[in-house]
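Could you help me review a protein record that somebody else here produced? Do not assume that whoever made the record got everything right. The record follows directly below this note.
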Amino acid sequence: MKNHRMPKIVLLHSALGDSRLWGRQVEALHAGFDVVTPDLPGWGATPLPTEPFSFVDVVAAELPAILVGNSFGGVVALRTALAHPDRVERLVLIGSGLPAWDWTEEMRDYFAAEEQAIEAGDLDAATEINLEFWVAPAHQDDVRPQQRRALELQTAHDEPEVLWPELAPLSSLQIPTLVIVGEDDKADFLAIAQHLAEEIPDADLAIVPGAGHLVGIDQPEELNALLLEFLAEDARVPE
């Protein structure tokens, strides 16, 4: 009798919160997958290192696996897949960012407002700036403590250098990829999703109605259905 390994799936959270953002996805996936939901360095239960470090190295320690990332977690998932393409089985990018993107004025104004509040030491104000910009009112109370915790960790000491591997072209990525974006997300992220879907050779694009940046909490059932359908394509007929 063969010992079939349960597929491993690593869910990488957005910068707005931590692994708790994935609660509804863990519930839907745990029966068929070995689900790993790390708190990235500087979020949740993981302090920000004091020495130079690599998000990609942190995630690579969990490979081989399927990678799913939302927003900043999408950037980390993408860069990990580009650096270790032979060890990432499938890739899901949800409202993902993209390195060296030419941000719109709306986004630059948001970055400046958040930075100003943090530099003034007003983490409560910085938290609210993020919630108002990114999170639907119905979910702000859930996300608030996660965002506040992240800002505390990230301002606890001087920010260390973050090391990134050289960025390979998107066209080099031969991994089955699903790009997901909320229909109500910011214009930048709708454009990034379109760009990713066009540039990654084996990529499909799904736009989720009624969802903003945090698709997993705005429309959890729809995201779960998209994930399960995409991951079922990898199912093997037993020999």
